[in-house]
Amino acid sequence: MAIIIGVRFREAGKVYYFDPLDFDVKAGDHVIVETARGKEYGYVVRGRSEVSDDKVVPPLKPVLRMATPDDDRMAEKNRGKEKSALAVCAEKVAKHELDMKLIDCEYTFDGSKILFYFTADGRVDFRELVKDLASVFRTRIELRQIGVRDETKIRGGIGICGRELCCHTYLADFAPVSVKMAKEQNLSLNPAKISGNCGRLMCCLKNEEDAYEYLNSRLPNIGDLVKTSDGLIGEVSALNVLKQRVKVIVSVNGADGEEKEVRDYSADDVKYYQRRRRDRDDNRRDKGDNEEGLRELERLEKREGGQHLDE
C-alpha cells in the first residue's frame, strides 16, 4: 500500500497522486508539487490516504511544500495574465488566417511556459503563429488541439437537466458512451434528446447504465408470456422500469364470454422464463418461442417449487 494525496490543477481536471511526505495535508489545501512541466500549484481534493500499489504510477513524486500566501498571489496573477494572453493569441490567429478556434490559455506556475488550447476540424500548421507568440511573451509556447468534449468541459454550461454540466463540475475523465445505453434506458434515439452541449452522447447515460441493467434484468421483455400471481397467463404489453411494474394483457371471463384486459402487476408478481436477452428496442417475439418458454417456465416451477424464475 502507498500513502498518497490527490491533487487537481484545473477545475474538474484529472486527479494526480503525490507523496505527502511528513506534511499535514488535508482536502482543500493548496500545495506546490513537482510535475513533468515543472513546479505546479495544485488543489488537494483527497487528503492523506492509502491506495494499492497498482493504482500508483511510479515514481510517486513528493509534495515540495505547502502553498504560501506568496504562492497564492502568484497563482492569482497567472490567472489574470491568461486572459490578456488569450486576447493576444486570438489577434495573431486572425492575422495568420488560421482555421482554428481558441478555447483557453494556461500559464505554468513558474511562468516558463504558456499553453493555448484550441479546436479545429483538421491539422493546423501553426509554426509561424508559435514564433510570433514567442517573440511577444518571451517564453516557451505550446499549442494543444483538443476535442469538442474537452472544449465543453473547459467552458462549462447548463445541461438539459437544468444543472451545471457533469464534465465541468466533477467528471475527471470521459467514459465511453454508446447508443446501446440509450436503448437500455428506453430513451428516444432522437439525437437532440440524447446529446449533450458538446454534440456527443450525454455522459449521464453512462452514470445510469448499471442501475438500468440491474432493473431490466428483473423484468420480462415486451411480448413475453408470463404467469401472474392470480393464476392468469398473459402477454407483456408495457414496462415501467423505474417503478418495476409490468402491464399484462390477460384473458378474463366477462358477461359476454372471454374478454381481454390489461392489468398492472409488480415485477415480483409475475413469473416468466428468462431467455437470452435481446435489445430493448426489438419488441418482435415469435409465438412458438413464447409457448416453448411458457412450457419451460411450468417445468422449472415444478422443479423449483414455484420459485420466481427471474435469474
Shape descriptor reads elongated
Number of strands: 13
Whole-number total of structural domains: 4
Helix content: 25-40%
Helix/strand-derived category reads: alpha+beta
Q: Mean pLDDT score, rounded?
A: 84
Distance between the termini: 38 Å
SSE order: EEEEEHEEHEHHHHHHEEEEEH
- Helix count equals 9
List low-confidence stretches: 276-287, 304-311
Largest sheet strand order:
2-1-4-3-5
Sheet of most strands: 5 strands, antiparallel
* Rg over C-alpha atoms, rounded to the nearest angstrom: 29 Å
Strand portion, in percent?
25-35%
In short:
The chain is α+β, with helices and mostly antiparallel strands and 311 residues long.
Describe the structure.
By secondary structure, the protein is of the alpha+beta class. It has helices at 69-96, 127-137, 148-155, 166-169, 179-184, 191-194, 204-207, 209-217, 287-304, and strands at residues 2-8, 16-18, 30-35, 38-51, 63-66, 101-107, 113-119, 140-145, 225-228, 233-240, 245-254, 257-266, 270-271. The strands form 3 sheets. Strands 2-1-4-3-5 form a 5-stranded antiparallel sheet. The chain has a 5-stranded antiparallel sheet with strand order 12-11-10-9-13. Helix 1 crosses helix 2 (127-137). The two termini are 38 Å apart. 21% of the residues are buried. Mean pLDDT is 84; it is low at 276-287 and 304-311.
